[in-house]
Amino acid sequence: MERVLIVDDQMGIRLLLKEVLEEEGYTVKEAHNGELALHMVEEWTPDIFIIDMKLPGINGLTLLKELQSSSRLDDAYVIIMTAFGEKEQVEAARQNGADYYIAKPFDIENLKSVIGKLSEEG
């Protein structure tokens, strides 16, 4: 487990996560929206997806459903991030393949710990 795709429209978050995860030895790619993420997974298969729920265009939940229906999540883990701790959204994400939920602003050490656990499980 070493390939991570970060899908977030906030460049600062993508850059922070990419830097931290690359220091941990992961291969990291990033997408600023759901459309780009769907295009990327046609040629590159992440082991872990980190997806923001609030994205322009295709939102995080729709992206999750698309990935699920195309069997892109069969051997991958999904971490959902959102500043909006709405129970319905989180539950819908879990029903569509999300393994973990992280609230923004997030603790980077906690996120690293979750990703480390997922890597060991895979």
Q: Roughly how much helix do the residues carry, as a percent range?
A: 40-55%
**What is the residue-mean pLDDT, rounded to a whole number?**
91
> CATH H-level name... which superfamily?
Response regulator
Spatial order of strands in the largest sheet: 2-1-3-4-5
Beta-strand segment tally? 5
Oligomer: single chain
The biggest sheet amounts to: 5 strands, parallel
Report low-confidence residues grouped into runs of 5 or more: none
**Topology order in helix (H) and strand (E) letters:** EHEHEHEHEH
- Return the structural class: alpha/beta
Number of domains: 1
> Kindly, what is the distance between the CA atoms of the first and last residues, rounded to a whole number of angstroms?
6 Å
Using the alpha-carbon principal axes, give the shape.
globular
Q: Mind telling me the C-alpha Rg?
A: 13 Å
Task: Quickly give the CATH architecture.
Answer: 3-Layer(aba) Sandwich
Keywords: Phosphoprotein
InterPro entries: Bact_response_regulator, CheY-like_superfamily, Sig_transdc_resp-reg_receiver
Protein name: Response regulator
Organism: Marinococcus halophilus
